[in-house]
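Q: Could you fold this chain for me?
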Amino acid sequence: MPAVRGSTFFISPRRCPASPCQPSDPDPELRESIALRVNEQQLANVNRPIDLDVTRLPLSLQTADAVVCINMIHVAPWSATLALLEGTKALLPTQPVLFLYGPYRRFGQHTSRSNEQFDSDLRAHDPEWGVRDLEAVSEAAASSGFVLAEVVEMPAHNFSLIFKT
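A: Sure. Below is the predicted structure, expressed as structure tokens.
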């Protein structure tokens, strides 16, 4: 799963201590930051973070029970989203679950003024970045064999998207 500097990743390992987690990030500094926090929080079910870039297929993992992608899609080119979907399809077993978390537009419209400003800031930083349209992500996921099973509104105008096959 892509790593984040905040605490979003660390919710699942604490709530599900019997489930192993494999964090990843292409950025060595973020991997080290994650490793330090895992050690500080004594999370025995979290493996050392690995270098994983979804745009470099095949993925360095062989298999996973689920894929959780937190706050990546809007800070990467659209091609990274497509690569994530393609790589995830090859990685997951017969009953895959793909969980995406982050800000999304709904039906082409921002869900808040703050997300609209965030989108402008992202696009000013890199024109290939930006808050994605939830329906476009769902359509791309469908092309990879996934079905949007659930959309959950989250705090700070974010959404959790749960895809299955």
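A (continued): The first helix runs from residue 11 to 15.
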